[in-house]
Design brief:
By secondary structure, the protein is mostly beta strands. Helices cover 0% and strands 48% of the residues. The protein has one domain: Rieske [2Fe-2S] iron-sulphur domain (Rieske Iron-sulfur Protein). Bound molecules: FE2/S2 (inorganic) cluster (FES). This is Nitrite reductase. GO terms for molecular function: 2 iron, 2 sulfur cluster binding; metal ion binding.
């Protein structure tokens, strides 16, 4: 079952930034990479840092606590100290609104 939730208008969303969508307490990070949108869990798989507060470098998000790197498009962990990948979620743009499927 899909659970598309609105995140923000695509036009007002600068490239290279992320926003957090909350789905019943599940925080999802949604990223704009040059007009392409991706979504992953917002919580680092190492400890409990909120990834949306980290730096976006190219197509990677860098954890603000201990520097683990994850691929934003795939959720794959690219460097320690995290070893587990992030879950990813489908994203679409409907009528100019970026939406994430929180159960996808
Ligand atoms: S909490 Fe993210 S690397 Fe430690």
């Amino acid at each position: 079952m899909n659970a598309w939730i609105d995140v923000a208008a695509a036009d007002d969303w600068p490239s290279g930034t992320c926003k957090v969508a909350d789905h019943h307490g599940l925080p999802i990070a949604v990223f704009n990479l040059q007009g392409r949108f991706y979504a992953t869990d917002n919580i680092c798989t190492h400890e409990y840092a909120e990834l949306c507060g980290g730096a976006i470098e190219g197509e990677e998000i860098v954890c603000p606590w201990h520097g683990a790197r994850f691929s934003i498009p795939t959720g794959k962990v690219n460097s320690a100290p995290a070893y587990e990948d992030l879950k990813t979620y489908p994203v679409r743009v409907e009528g100019g609104m970026v939406q994430v499927d929180a159960e996808g």
